[in-house]
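Would you mind writing out a protein's amino acid sequence and the numbers that encode its backbone to help me picture the idea?
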Amino acid sequence: MLYQCEVGRVAPEDAIAAYGEIEQGGHLGSAEAEALASRLVIGTVERTPELDPLIAASSDHWRPERLAIVDRLILRMAVYQFLHVPDVPPNVVINEAVELARRFSGDESGRFVNGVLDAIKRKLKAAERPK
C-alpha cells in the first residue's frame, strides 16, 4: 500500500481500498488488522516530512530519496510506529521491519534497516531522558 502511494502517487485511502479489494476480497483481515493497516499507511504518508529527517540523520551518507524504495518505506513506517504507535515496543517494530526488508528487499537490506532503526531508537530514547 505504501509502495502504491509512493510510486503511483495514489492517495493512502485509495491504496488501502485497492489492496483490500485485490488481495483480500474486500477486507484486510480482522477489524483490528484493518484499523492498524489504515493507521500505519495514512500516518506514514502524512508524516513523511517528519520521518525523513530522522532517517537521514541515522543513515550515514544516505538521503532517504536515494534509498531503495522498499527500504525507505519500511524505515518510514517503522519510525512512524516509534513516534506514534506507543503500544508496539520498539524492538518489535525493528524485528518486523527487518523481516519485511529481508522478504521484500534482501538480506543486506535487513542489516541496513536494523542498523538505521537501532540508531534512531537510541536517539529517541536519549531525547526522552531528562537533562
User: Anything to note?
Assistant: The chain is about 75% helix and 0% strand. The chain has a mean pLDDT of 88. Residues 35 and 115 are 29 Å apart (CA to CA). The radius of gyration is 15 Å.
